[in-house]
Specification:
With about 260 residues, the protein is of the alpha/beta class. The chain has helices spanning about 15-25, 40-50, 70-80, 105-130, 150-170, 190-195, 205-220, 230-235, 240-250; strands at about 5-10, 30-35, 55-60, 85-90, 135-140, 175-180, 185-190, 205, 225. It binds NADP nicotinamide-adenine-dinucleotide phosphate.
Length: about 260
């Protein structure tokens, strides 16, 4: 592996993205890491460069803003590097009654989980088509498979990610580009706290999820579902699963919603 192989990871300052960044660096890839938190991005850059001697660029961008994907693309262009692997990992959730959530917040969630992911896939996908090679990993969720009461917008965004990714896997194959989708279930990260819910004891560790994701991506797996329990969950008929999800998510709400 040479330093010329670049991987762009969105949402690399915590959780699954952070673990993926460490993993790719240890495998000798050069990194471009995007997120909002400047301090955390620079701390991670310093840590990885020191430990692995790989090149790390950081991009501060709020991907919930319209046009953020284009802004990231232009910043990468200015670096003068080619992205071999794109990992659309940045994402956020929201737990609570749909009618209580302000539409502005729903919109930001949709822009982050779907808009930015779509824009980045389109822009870097075009570059990959020019090179007739590339890999894309889009992070969806087990929630992509069932409607999710009390987390309705989040689950709907993740259903979109899975559908888009499966379609693009077919479209981009003739260009030598692979598209894989990671569908984690509950994972111990900052996600639950940010979404306004309690962590569950059943959550997997982010490091394990990242390792499974890395292996699946490298082996060109279509859909990567980490953990036996999650594999089982996606097979449950929609009507039962949605009722279970509704009860489960309602019980986890910690904010006054
Ligand atoms: N944890 C779970 O239970 C779970 C389950 C299924 C799917 N997932 C999916 O896994 C992915 C990673 O989540 P995680 O669990 O690792 O959560 P996390 O620990 O909260 O990490 C989310 C990452 O995304 C970045 N991010 C959030 N909002 C952003 C914004 N507006 N612009 C740019 N970056 C932003 C965060 O960085 P900054 O705050 O620095 O911007 C952070 O690096 C997400 O797509 C999530 O939907 C998670």
């Amino acid at each position: 592996m040479t330093e010329d192989k670049f991987v762009l990871i969105t949402g690399a300052t915590s959780g699954i993205g952070y673990e993926l960044a460490k993993l790719f660096a240890s495998e000798g890839y050069a990194l471009i890491l995007a997120a909002r938190n400047d301090g955390k991005l620079n701390a991670l850059k310093e840590k990885l460069e020191l430990k692995t001697h790989t090149k790390v660029y950081v991009i501060k961008e709020d991907l919930a803003q319209i046009g953020a994907g284009q802004a990231v693309y232009e910043k990468v262009k200015r670096l003068g590097v080619y992205v071999d692997i794109l990992i659309n990992n940045a994402g956020a959730g929201y737990v609570g009654a749909f009618h209580r959530q302000a539409f502005e917040e729903d919109f930001k969630l949709m822009q982050l989980n779907m808009g930015a992911l779509t824009e980045l896939t389109k822009l870097f996908g075009r570059e990959m088509i020019k090179h007739q090679q590339g890999k894309i990993l889009n992070v969806a969720s087990t929630g992509s498979y069932h409607p999710g009461p009390y987390t309705a917008v989040y689950y709907a965004t993740k259903a979109y990610v899975l559908s888009l990714s499966e379609a693009l896997r077919i479209e981009l194959k003739p260009h030598g580009i692979t598209v894989s989708t990671l569908c984690p279930g509950a994972t111990r990260t900052e996600f639950a706290k940010r979404a306004g819910k309690k962590d569950t004891r059943l959550a997997m560790e982010a490091k394990e999820v990242a390792q499974i994701a890395f292996k699946g991506l490298m082996n060109n797996k279509k859909i990567i579902i980490p953990g036996f329990r999650n594999k089982l969950f996606v097979k449950i008929p929609k009507i039962w699963a949605s009722q279970m999800v509704g009860k489960y998510q309602k019980a986890l709400i910690i904010k006054n919603k």
